[in-house]
Every structure is written in C-alpha cells, then in structure tokens.
Amino acid sequence: MGTPALLTTTVGSYPVPDWLPALPSSQALLDATRVVFDIQREAGIDLPTDGELYRFDINHPDTNGMIDYFTSKLGGISPAGRAETEVFRAKQEMQFRAKPAGVVRTPITEGTLNLPEDCARASAVARGAFKFTLTSPYMLARTLLDKHYRDLSGLTLAIADALAAQVAFLDTSCIQIDEANIPGNPADSALAAKAINRVLDAVPNGVQRAVHLCFGNYGGQTVQQGTWDALLTFFNDLQVDHVVLELAHRPSSDLDALKDLPPYVGLGIGVVDVKVNHVETEDEVARRIDAAAQKLGADRLRYIHPDCGFWMLKRSVADRKMAALAQGRDRYLRS
User: Of the candidates 239, 149, 252, 142, which has an alpha carbon nearest to the alpha carbon of residue 188?
Assistant: First the structure.
C-alpha cells in the first residue's frame, strides 16, 4: 500500500501491563515489550516505541523512570540525605518533586547506564522500524542537587556528554530526546539547545533525530506554564529532523507560533490528549490534523501522535486512543 504521507507515532511510554510487576523477570520484560510493540502496530502506529519498558522497575512500577532511571545509573550521582532533601525542596521551580533525583558529588560519567543494551532488547522484538527515547540532559540536571559542578551549565553539558557516548551505539530508526522542563524556563533555552544538540550530534547517520517537548504531565496535570512562541529561538537552535509537540491540550493559538519555525524542521503534531480519559473520535482527530495543516501547511506535517506518553492512563483507554489516532489520520488523508 506504500507509506502514508503523514505517519503516526507514539511519544514513548505505555502503561505497564499488570502481569509484569506481578511476576517480573527478564523473560517477562521481553514478552511485555513484544506485546507493547504488537499492540501499537495492530492499532495502526507506523513508528512505535518499546513503551519505555526498558525503564521498568519492580520497586516503582507506577512510574516510567523518565528521570530516576538515568540518574540512578549515571556515575557521580548518589542518593540525597535529609538535609540535602530540604535544600532541594527550597527550590521553588521544582516543587512537583518531593526530593532530588540524586546528589552530584563527583564528575558525571556513564556509570552503569547501558542504553545500547536496552535498545537491543527492543530491537529483538520490534518487528520493524521503531523509535527509542531518552530524557534531555537539561531536564535531568534540573532534578539534581549539584554539589560538584555548582553550575547548571557545567552539569547539564556533562550529562549531555555521557548520554552522547551511548547514543552513538543505538540501533534504531529514530532517536527522540524528551524535554518537559524547558517550556516553563525559556530563559535557559540556549543551554538546553546546546546540550540536546551534543546528544543529537552523536546520533548515527541515517537515524532520524527528534525532540519531544511538552508542559509536563503529572497525574494528568500540567507542570510547566508557558507558550510555544517563547521557545522559537530554542526551536531554531535545534539540529533536529522533527519536533514532537504537545498541542491537543493546548490553546489553538499555539499553532500560530509554529509558523516561524525553520522550514527544515518537520513537525509532529499532538492530536490526542493524554490528560483526559475521553477517547477521541476519528472525526476529532481528523479535524485537529486539518486545523494544523491549514495554519502550517500540510507539507510541514511529518507525524501525528498523542501529546505525551500513555503511562498514566489505563491500557484500555490508551489502546482506543491509539486506534483513533490512526483512524483519524486515514480519514484526513481521504478528505
């Protein structure tokens, strides 16, 4: 049938299957990863992910490890004590976290992080092209208490270097860096872009480079306040093939800000809202795609996707939203 003019993808995470934490093992994790890939492909997702199950933690199965998976494995970082936790809690901009993801005590190294092995597990059961995701060095740096560099720039770039060393060995079709903090802190956009570009520069030739940006999603609530137009300089600085943006839960005026993005940056448009349990109809999805095409030009649209990951939703809701995403894309292309 050929490749559709507009592709579907997911942002990253998928709800952990109930049976995985009930009886966890290496084989169960591989089986769950296979199931998550198959569910997405059956729903009509062209570029699925492993559901970010590579971050699964039996002790914390209710999170997707977006921060702690990385900070617990990178070298130079260790847990915080009582007094250090109190210092971190005094940082007003991080009040959505009860404690730091760790304390930086010595130079950042790769430590025990092994993203190539995680990616290889996904590749073994993906049955086709897939996307592998990791968290932005800027976002990771913001969640840490820094007692070594004592400088946000130095810490952020050190994390970027550690991630870049691993990204160079990822065998996948697309590598996506997730950043949910910079939309609320546009003053740091130059630093965030510099760090993200260090990681993107290490992406192997022929592999798509993507950056996902959103305003956060904790318990269905927005964490960061801001607008896309405040990040135009940041977008222009990124060395990226396409951006993956939260838009379904945002005001329609956000589309106007994207008109000034450089033409070489492809757009991924969020058309499914993950902060509500309502399952969109294919007509709703098609209308959202059409609205974006009318304002931005259909040729600028590369992907449609949910606003963020699905891990906070029930599987039954996530699965129906994915099906609506693909059906809405098909209806839009037929119109």
Answer: 142
Contact 126, 170 (CB under 8 A): no
pLDDT in tens, 30-51: 999 999 999 999 999 999 999 9
Alpha-carbon gap, residue 324 to 5, rounded angstroms: 18
Q: Which residue has the tokens 């795609």?
A: 289
Structure tokens at 331: 């209806």
Q: What secondary structure letter does DSSP report for 76?
A: E
Residue pointed to by tokens 């939203």? 321
The topology (CATH level 3) of 7-334 is TIM Barrel (3.20.20)
Q: Is the pTM of this model over 0.85?
A: yes
Question: Which of 179, 183, 191 has its CA nearest to residue 231?
Answer: 183
Cβ 267 vs Cβ 296: under 8 Å: yes
How is the chain split into domains, by residue range? 7-334
What amino acid is encoded at 329 in this protein? R
- Token output for 225: 């306040």
Buried-exposed string 237-276: b where 16+ CB fall within 10 A, e elsewhere: bbebbbbbbbbbbbeeebbeebeebeeebbbbbbbbbbbe
The Cα–Cα gap between 1 and 127 comes to: 18
d(CA 285, CA 135): 28
For residue 301, give both structure tokens: 């649209």
Dump pLDDT digits (tens) for 121-157: 999 999 999 999 999 999 999 999 999 999 999 999 9
User: What are the b/e assignments for 29-52, b being 16+ CB within 10 Å?
Assistant: beebbbbbbebbeebbbbbbbbbb
- Give percent helix, percent strand, percent coil of the chain, each to the nearest 5: 45, 15, 40
